[in-house]
Design a protein that fits this description.
The protein is an alpha+beta fold and 333 residues long. It contains nine helices and twelve strands. The N terminus is likely disordered.
Length: 333
């Protein structure tokens, strides 16, 4: 569905500017039309359900952080979703390890990485933010911290994910499939009725990765960034490339310079593409997607190549709409 159609359905108060052409560099001096608060946006098709839950909670005056956490936990607990939480595809040694981070409108942050046996690493990242003097805990240390807090220990493997791993071992070739293996994250951003922003990014990482590999998802500034005075952004796709340009911080920084969320996402993707060109590196197996929201409810999403979708749910109790949007892309295929 086109952005203009979505905004009309949402009953947006502001008028919408047209999307800039690909590779656009000129700022338009403001954001695209705002969606009435509260608003929640999330990566991929599972974001429809998670944003609906977050939006319902925010209508009842739940905070953006509480609502976002509730949303992503739906995805983490779904054994049929092989890129997040329970049932996530394992590393090349058959171990499922999870990463997550969170950030609120005040700049409070928490992160965990390479965590085993904990389903809700989003909640664990929040615990790091709220209950420790640190911002990131990894591996066995994160697991021990979770045990101290009473998080249940659970086998994260499910029969289907292990069947896929056994099939992969027959050739043991790591060749990511665009929009399948690279569809590896839920990033969710919310703006509550009080105008406060929050975000969470949680993932099981790339399938069949080297043991100990950590991508962008738990890295504040790469997989997620929130500035309560400006906006928030999150990323999905090839984490190493997002880290290279500090992608989510870059998107928010572009919004601070006056670009709309849509334009800011486009500029971050363009920077990643430029780095590929400088290094003369192969880009054929890479997908990147960004979504962003500003403090007024303006939103945007953009990807390197077609196939990236994101969900938006917003509006008042009497006028709520939730949609899955095909993000525009820089490349045609």
């Amino acid at each position: 569905m086109k952005r203009s159609e979505f905004l009309k359905l949402m009953g947006a108060a502001a008028t919408s500017g047209a999307l800039l052409p690909k590779f656009a560099t000129a700022a338009t001096g403001g954001s695209t039309a705002a969606v009435p608060k509260p608003v929640s946006i999330a990566t991929w098709n599972f974001g429809v359900e998670t944003t609906q839950l977050a939006h319902r909670q925010m209508l009842d005056n739940t905070s953006a952080m509480d609502a976002t956490e509730a949303g992503v936990k739906l995805c983490e607990a779904d054994p049929n979703e092989h890129s997040v939480g329970l049932g996530g595809l394992p590393d090349r040694d058959g171990r499922v390890t999870l990463d997550a981070c969170c950030m609120d409108h005040l700049g409070n942050i928490g992160s965990v990485a390479a965590v085993e046996n904990i389903v809700h690493v989003s909640s664990l990242a929040r615990a790091v933010m709220e209950q420790t003097p640190h911002v990131m805990i990894v591996g066995e240390g994160a697991k021990e911290f979770a045990k101290e807090l009473g998080f249940p220990m659970q086998d994260l493997t499910v029969p289907e994910s292990m069947r896929l791993w056994e099939e992969w071992k027959k050739t043991a070739e790591y060749k990511p499939v665009i929009n399948i293996e690279n569809h590896d994250t839920i990033g969710q951003l919310s703006l509550d009725k009080q105008g406060h922003l929050a975000g969470i990014c949680t993932t099981s990482g790339l399938a069949y990765k080297m043991r100990g590999r950590v991508g962008d998802s738990p890295i504040i500034g790469a997989g997620l960034y929130v500035d309560g005075d400006i906006g928030a952004a999150t990323a999905t796709g090839h984490g190493e490339e997002v880290i290279r340009v500090v992608g989510s911080y870059r998107v928010v920084s572009e919004m601070e310079r006056g670009y709309s969320p849509q334009e800011a996402c486009e500029r971050a993707v363009r920077k990643i593409y430029d780095f590929f060109q400088r290094r003369d590196a192969g880009i054929q197996d890479t997908q990147i997607g960004f979504i962003a929201i500003d403090k007024n409810g303006g939103y945007g999403g953009y990807s390197l190549r077609p196939g990236f979708q994101y969900a938006v749910t917003g509006g008042s109790e009497d006028n709520t709409t939730s949609l899955l949007i095909d993000a525009p892309s820089m490349l045609d295929s």
